[in-house]
Amino acid sequence: MNPLAKGIRDYLALRRGLGFKLVRHEAGLKEFASFLARKRSSHITVALALERATQHAQQQPAEWTARLCVVRGFARYWSATDPLTEVPPLGLLPYRPARAQPYFYSDHEIRKLLRAAKTRPSIDPLRPCTYHCLFGLLAVTGLRLGEALGLRLGDMDWSEGILTIRGAKFGKSRLVPLHTSTCKVLADYAKRRDERFGARAEGYFLVNLNGNRLDKGEVHRAFYLLSRQIGLRAVDASRGPRLHDFRHRFAVETLLRWYRNGEDPKRRLPILSTYLGHAHVTDTYWYLTGTPELLGAANKRLEKRWEALNAGSR
């Protein structure tokens, strides 16, 4: 194994030890190492990194930027070992990936969606209950879709009302407490599911018509259909509210509740960050600029602090 290949292996092992999965990074770095070998170069240079990133002219600029970012991360690490390594600077490519603008669901819209899910005709009598349960769970817990679909029967502690989320985005497990009303809905679904498929400790909690794990693509298609049915999306719209926006709403609602109760959200942000399964508190800060209502609450808190400071200085 040449030094560069060993460096890539060690870099991936180090990052994975911190909880990152890096599936795309591994493939991208191996391709880049092969590219350097074809170029007969044993050192990373900005020119070669840029050439590799933009090699396929038919690809979107977003793909070029993503490929270059993968190399940049490794180059920063590898430069400590190889002083001839050049780290591609930020902004080398013009494309700036933008986060999708979140949609803030109203309580009325969520109720309409859940009602539509529960009453939608289906050849599978369990299917309406499954989607009603899934969409409701996403709305009240802020779970990622993959986390909800990955829940197994043994992940629910009925006596304590706690879900265990295993193998989440960054490989960390966490506990998610549930309201008694949520537990009641989940228990009702579990009873219906067990009556049909039997209780299997290792089985998935939310299942398809065969008793297996729900497919993500199938879930998204069902959500889009129901969204159009209740008017959340236009019939011919390719974009609109997403399932992930339930997670955004949960975070914003939590922050708003803290503001309204006179608590300091920034002090409590690590709690929300842990609950959501974020790797860093900085990942949660994005929600602080989420909605006009949240910004208004933040401004009111700031005004009160200024008033208190001014009163104290008189």
UniProtKB/TrEMBL annotation:
Residue ranges of every copy of the Tyr recombinase domain listed in the record: 100-300
Keyword check for Isomerase: no
InterPro entries documented for this protein: DNA_brk_join_enz (IPR011010), Integrase-like_cat_sf (IPR013762), Integrase_catalytic (IPR002104), Tyrosine_recombinase_XerCD (IPR050090)
Keywords recorded for this protein, A-Z: DNA recombination, DNA-binding
Pfam families: Phage_integrase
GO BP, one annotated term: DNA recombination
Family according to the record: Belongs to the 'phage' integrase family.
Descriptive protein name: Phage integrase family protein
